[in-house]
Structures are given as structure tokens and as C-alpha cells.
């Protein structure tokens, strides 16, 4: 899997982080995070990608250990965090660290954290057995009553269903359904094995150590990132979709039917 994400690391920020869709969905995630009203936290971030979330968490005063399986992603993270630490306007130093971490390995950090963060579907790269094992590892490195802040790709997506049905691509329209492994294409030359979980299914996988706090839809009206070109062509339409997302952003029922779903759990 690391090789697949290595291939897209250099273009990831241009293709998603800085896109209209990427910015809109990330804004939703951080809006929900702000509602937790947490003081300065020690954060373990899994599947950090290029480190965009880590930067925001650092700017908010949290201490972050940033991890990803892809060495190329980690190098980009390191560059961003180093630039943040060395900024003349920044008086917060040594708040960010990076580590190349395979979630399926046994070499997890030995320290304990206040918050675990995983955004935009990194956990979907694990099958159910691997997720259950990771749940135990997460519990071992989390403080009592700490939070998991997980954004996954749910097993239903209204946008994806109707978009691909209109194009006559039935297999793509229902690819999230059924719980089977899907080879999700990252670009024209690479793909990654992916499993889709409903928020309630994910909560059941983690239930031995964590209890469910809340779920939220992320990208119910704002579409998946492969529709970026169409959203760029119709900015007013996209603006309306973003407003609709805000209106329905706290309705947990819709979290199963959006592009992503935020699942907040708390250690028992």
C-alpha cells in the first residue's frame, strides 16, 4: 500500500488538499472538531498524508505525532512541520514530530495520547480483522477517556450512486455496497485495496475498548473528489452544495450516505 501512496504523494496537495472539494470537506471536519472544545492535546495522527491536518492542529496549539505508511508522504509532512517550526512568527517549537508507521505492524508508539486522529479514509485500507487488531493498539496508546476522531468512507454514498448510474456504470455505482474488497484507483497507474464501513459497523469493531459519541456526514452534498473538474466549472452550484452541507452537517442519520463520515469515539 505504501508504494501506491508514494506514487501520488507529490501531486496529492494539488489534486485534493487545495481543491474546492478538499477544502470544503476539511472545513467540515475541523468545524466538528472545534465543537469538542478541547484544550491543548497530545495527538497521534494516523494516515496523515501530506500533513495538512497536522499543520492545523499545530496552529491550534496541540502537540502532534504525525504518522503515515508512505515514506514519500512522511517526507512532505516533515518539510511542512519543519517550515512551521522555523517560521519567525511562530513561538511554538517542538510541537510536531513525524514517524513512518504501518498500522499493521507491532511497532506503535509506547507513549499515551489524549487524542487519536485519522482523516479521509485511511482506515478504509484495512480489512475488518486488521481494524480489530488496530483498535487494541489504539487503546494501548490512548489515555483514559480520550477521543478517537476518525473520518472514514462509508458503505453508501448517494452522490456516487446517482453519478455512476447516470453514466451507466453499475459496478462503480454499487462498489461500496456489500462489504467486499474494492481496488480503488488512486491514479492511472496505481490502486489500493479498500473496504467500506458504515459508521455503526466501525463503532462495533471498536466497541470492546471505545464507546460511540457521535457521527456526522462529511460531503453529503459536496461530492467526491473525482468530480472536482465539474465543480470548478460551476462555482455557484458548488457554493449552494457547500451551504447545504452546513445545514445538514449535524444530522447523524446522513453520515452513512455521504462521501465521508466522521465517527467520534471515546475510550471507556
Mean of residue pLDDT values: 94
Structural class: alpha/beta
- How many domains is the backbone divided into? 1
Number of strands: 9
Superfamily (CATH H level) name: Vaccinia Virus protein VP39
Care to describe what's here?
It is a single chain. The protein is an alpha/beta fold and 268 residues long. Helices cover 40% and strands 23% of the residues. Strand 6 and strand 7 (190-194) form a beta hairpin. Helix 1 (2-17) crosses helix 4 (71-86). It starts with a helix and ends with a strand. The relative contact order is 0.16.
For the structure shown, list the relevant keywords:
alpha/beta; 9 strands; 268 residues; Rossmann fold
Sequence-ordered SSE layout with sheet pairings:
Layout (H helix, E strand, L loop, with lengths): L1 H16 L2 H15 L7 E5 L5 H8 L3 E6 L2 H16 L9 E5 L12 E6 L9 H13 L1 E11 L5 H9 L3 H4 L8 E6 L2 E5 L4 H7 L4 E9 L9 H6 L1 H14 L11 E8 L1
Parallel strand pairs: 1-2, 1-4, 2-3, 4-5
Antiparallel strand pairs: 5-9, 6-7, 8-9
Quickly describe the structure.
The chain is an alpha/beta fold and 268 residues long.
